[in-house]
């Protein structure tokens, strides 16, 4: 069965185009500058890098929006789950915007029509991706093996050489030399390619031209999204009422996680005008109170409460097993590392003794002591006193008298 590549890059622009079809759209950066724009927006005069105000002045019907990274990743994971459920168990999408599948040619044509995206079909992932870059939206470009594949690759333009490892700098340097594509690069020797492109990139290109390519797609691991949904009898308008619903849904999440950690929390609110969603990134492993607060903030980001929420859906994505380091050595009694170190270097180890963790002065907070004797060890890590002890009243008076006497002794009569 051949391998297919679906080209949906740039993914933020594709996501906006699917949400707002048949109108000019542009994806903005955090500084409100145009990162990507579709063909309708570019024909209206929208250029990459301009401010959103300037873009709207040239194209008043433009829809410009900032697509945050959590929102884009959550939508990408949802797409991978859909492809796994409907088309194939071999799905791989490490980079948002490019997904590889193991499907038949009829299924590839159906997928291209459903997503209205270019699809490449070949026996290797690299050739399939090049074919997808040269296909039209909704079209499948199939590349046969043998002489047909060699003729197809010889027509690869320089802009598509990033698939085999070249960087934009390499492509610019090749264009300066007059290289018109992969056909001209094939005429070079292996040593010339390594000398010009670098050893790593050159070897990768040489292996590709020799036929050493990736011919398998990794098996997709499902269950990366945990979802809980609750429908409402009457529309919801108050945040306090939403907190009650979240309090009932979150225990289901915690039971389903089973000690794992999630990267993103998505809230979907169904209203009369449609579904609104927002995604928040989770830092660490927040507890029930933290998840409740983040869910409330995400619901506020959707702006669905004034419209009336008829159903709420919570999703956790980016499920993974957290890694924790419990100690420097797994079993101190068995390894006896500390004893061996102290036998060879008696003064090598020190340990901290806490005096007052909440003290303002560093030397009053902790001190380093010897591992064996427990005596204070004056090392470079030992806190130094940065202040002088205050004088008593008698000492201060005596210092003032001495300064006054020294002044009069120096004044001539």
TrEMBL record:
InterPro entries noted in UniProt: DNA/RNA_pol_sf
Source superkingdom: Bacteria
Name the record gives this protein: Y-family DNA polymerase
Natural source organism: Deinococcus aerolatus
């Amino acid at each position: 069965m051949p391998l297919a590549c679906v080209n949906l890059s740039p993914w933020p622009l594709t996501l906006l185009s699917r949400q707002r079809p048949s109108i000019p759209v542009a994806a903005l950066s955090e500084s409100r500058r145009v990162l990507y724009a579709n063909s309708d927006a570019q024909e209206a005069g929208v250029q990459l890098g301009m401010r959103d105000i300037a873009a709207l002045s040239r194209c008043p019907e433009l829809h410009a929006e900032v697509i945050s990274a959590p929102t884009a990743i959550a939508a990408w994971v949802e797409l991978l789950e859909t492809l796994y459920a409907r088309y194939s168990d071999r799905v791989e999408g490490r980079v948002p915007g490019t997904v590889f599948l193991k499907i038949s040619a009829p299924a590839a044509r159906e997928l291209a029509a459903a997503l209205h995206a270019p699809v490449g079909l070949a026996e290797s992932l690299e050739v399939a991706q090049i074919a997808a870059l040269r296909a039209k939206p909704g079209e499948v470009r199939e590349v046969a093996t043998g002489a047909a594949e060699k003729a197809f690759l010889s027509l690869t333009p320089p802009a598509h050489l990033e698939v085999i490892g070249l960087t934009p700098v390499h492509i610019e340097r090749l264009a300066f030399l007059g290289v018109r594509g992969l056909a001209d690069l094939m005429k070079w020797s292996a040593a010339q390619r390594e000398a010009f492109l670098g050893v790593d990139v050159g070897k990768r290109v040489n292996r590709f031209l020799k036929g050493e390519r990736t011919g398998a797609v990794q098996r997709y691991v499902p269950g990366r999204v945990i979802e809980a949904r609750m429908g409402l009898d009457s529309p919801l308008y108050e945040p306090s009422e939403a907190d009650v619903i979240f309090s009932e849904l979150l225990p289901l999440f915690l039971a389903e996680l089973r000690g794992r950690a999630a990267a993103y929390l998505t809230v979907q609110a169904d209203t009369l005008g449609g579904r609104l969603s927002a995604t928040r990134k989770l830092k660490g492993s927040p507890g029930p109170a933290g998840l409740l607060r983040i869910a409330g903030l995400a619901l506020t980001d959707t702006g669905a409460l004034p419209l009336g929420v008829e159903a709420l859906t919570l999703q956790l994505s980016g499920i993974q097993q957290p890694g924790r380091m419990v100690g420097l050595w797994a079993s101190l009694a068995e390894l006896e590392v500390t004893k061996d170190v102290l036998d060879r270097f008696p003064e090598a180890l020190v340990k901290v003794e806490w005096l007052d963790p909440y003290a303002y002065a560093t030397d009053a907070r902790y001190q380093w002591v010897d591992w064996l004797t427990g005596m204070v060890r004056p090392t470079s890590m030992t806190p130094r006193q940065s202040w002088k002890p205050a004088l008593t009243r008698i000492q201060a008076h005596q210092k003032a008298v001495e300064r006054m006497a020294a002044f009069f002794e120096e004044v001539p009569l």
